[in-house]
């Protein structure tokens, strides 16, 4: 039986959740991995692993062979747009009939911040390809608090961000995955874009209160300066262009531009999006 759906970025935050949800639905899934060490994770999730290495073009051809639909996710790296271009070109060559793109909230706002412009460039490539598409544009992920800030929450009872009192309508990656699974398996979503948010806009002070309640100990949000945030990201080894792109993202959150709520998660999945309290309860071990 030929594989029908290819998921790129299959071991990341969103990708692995999509692989799991599609497998539960009985779909035939091929999941792209960069490293052989991730093969067992994909097999456990119920999909066929396939190597995808941008430095080896033949792996792209093999990954797309026999594929009808693609969930196209690219990592946050300086050459993200170039990666997207290679994937779209390979989709055209392989006769792919439908692309679901993991984009970002605000990609349609011009001129937009750097991350939005990168996402929109890839969206435009997909539009120009002639392949039917759906763009999923999620807000920032709830899971970032576990994956990026979990260590300091565990060890210092605190997390650090330069966003002041700004609010964001954070979305759970499980809801993003549910939306992706829905548009990949049901018709009627072609050539549309959906903004994916959670059910509430929260400040990081409110996030800290929820984490405190769920963990049973006082968790503090520490508002840091942009310079301190830059320093921390540089010390973590982030490329300078990514550091500055994230500083831009934090600035629009601080200004309140990420607080708008969207009904699209429920519109696409038929279910209300998960609250941050639900996320924190489910992921409580990441904070202990």
Characterise this structure.
This protein has 288 residues and is of the alpha/beta class. The protein has a domain at 5-138 and 173-196 and 261-269: 3-Layer(aba) Sandwich (Rossmann fold), CATH 3.40.50. The protein contains 13 helices and 11 strands. β4 (69-72), α4 and β5 (98-102) form a beta-alpha-beta unit. α1 crosses α8 and α9 packs parallel to α13 (276-282). The N and C termini lie far apart (44 Å).
State the strand order across the main sheet: 3-2-1-4-5-6-9
Distance between the termini: 44 Å
The helix count comes to 13
Alpha-beta classification: alpha/beta
Query: Approximately how much beta-strand content do the residues carry?
Result: 15-25%
SSE pattern, N- to C-terminal = EHEHEHEHEHEHHEEHEEHEHHHH
Instruction: Name the poorly predicted regions.
Output: none
On the 0 to 100 scale, the average pLDDT is 95
By DSSP, the count of extended strands is 11
CATH superfamily of the domain at 5-138 and 173-196 and 261-269: NAD(P)-binding Rossmann-like Domain
| Largest sheet entry | 7 strands, parallel
CATH fold-type name of the domain at 5-138 and 173-196 and 261-269: Rossmann fold
List the helices and strands and how they pair.
Blueprint: E1 5-7, H1 15-24, E2 29-33, H2 39-44, E3 48-51, H3 57-64, E4 69-72, H4 80-93, E5 98-102, H5 114-129, E6 133-138, H6 144-147, H7 150-156, E7 158-161, E8 167-168, H8 173-185, E9 192-196, E10 202-203, H9 204-215, E11 220-223, H10 226-235, H11 240-254, H12 264-269, H13 276-282
Parallel strand pairs: 1-2, 1-4, 2-3, 4-5, 5-6, 6-9, 7-11
Antiparallel strand pairs: 8-10
Helix pairs in contact: 1-8, 4-5, 9-13, 10-11
